[in-house]
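In practice, a research group might receive sequence data for several interacting partners and want a quick structural hypothesis before committing to experiments. The following worked case mirrors that situation: the sequences arrive first, and a predicted assembly follows.
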Amino acid sequence: MSNQATAVPLKKDWEGGVSPFGVSYGKLFMWFFLVSDALTFSSLLCAYGFMRHKYFGQWAHPNEVFHHFPFLPGKDLPLAYVGFMTFDLIMSSVTMVLAVEAGHRKNRKQVMMWLFFTIIGGFIFVGSQCWEWYHFITGPEITATYQGVYRDYIMNGVHIINPHFTGANLIVNSYTMLPTFGDFFFCITGFHGFHVFSGVIINIIIFLMVANGVMDKRGHYEMVEKAGLYWHFVDLVWVFVFTFFYLL
Amino acid sequence: MADFFEEYEGYPNYEKMAIHDEAHGKTTRKKLWMVFWIMLVVTLFELFIGFKYSEVLGETNKEYLFIFLTIAKAFFIVFVFMHLGDEKKALKYVIIAPYTLFIFYLAFMVITEGVYTYHIKDIISAVAMHQ
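A structural hypothesis for the assembly, expressed as tokens:
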């Protein structure tokens, strides 16, 4: 605690005139927002759990779906790339918390450095997810004729069912008989990916604000801490998505 | 908003309370890096179990182990990285308690219902075929 805070004796928690939670208005409502967002993600994952138990035994094995790695085509490396993505997000979470810590010391240069690393980590994650979606949609083997993209199509008025269909879309996928598998994958990882993307945007805005000296003018770096809360929440959700989608 | 509270006499400046010096920062950083190594080891362990030893452990045990490790990681993220462990008791409870109550109850209901639906699926389709 600093000297500014102890200069005025604090009243009791619920007598008014102080925050009973001991945090500023903005930070408290960031927490409330995160709780409501966590409830949304939890209900999505619970719905996923329902389907998983309803179609017990018919669900796709993640080891057989997510087993490719960039620049190593044809190699069977189950979950290696998802493991890398998890590592990347945890790493960017650490750099974010170091930025917050540097902000507590009002060290502008260090805040900018750690925030920069966090933004890079976020971009790596979003790019990785794009790559993974691409491979999930086109399937494990991309044929030269590019015929595997559509399951059925109409050519010259004849309805043709493609036996070489690989990949996934919202209606059908080649990994299971269940369209629900693809639907939940797109919905949950897409919703999470959108959160990561908006987190990167928020981090960039905060980076520019720090670079322009806005925080120094205010006298505190709490905005970095609030952006950090959101970024850690994104990491937290990924920990659960990683377990329930890729490991179980 | 900040100006509004500054005008109110005696309102503590919570934004500036977290500011600390270099020595305090050093111990904080040490703790953060330690938590990072714990999380990394746990994740590598999960991956290792995931595609090497799933047969040895058995499907159900594996699931329980993964869920336990995930909740452990979530605890570290929320209480160390998000600094909820350093906050007041009131804030800790107002964040954790409602969420935990709702979600454990929801997960319990939904999973129970899912297992039940799995068991009666064949009965439903058999009845539908008869009609």
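Before designing any experiment, note the following. The two ends of chain B are 67 Å apart (CA to CA). Chain B has two domains: 1-86, 88-131.
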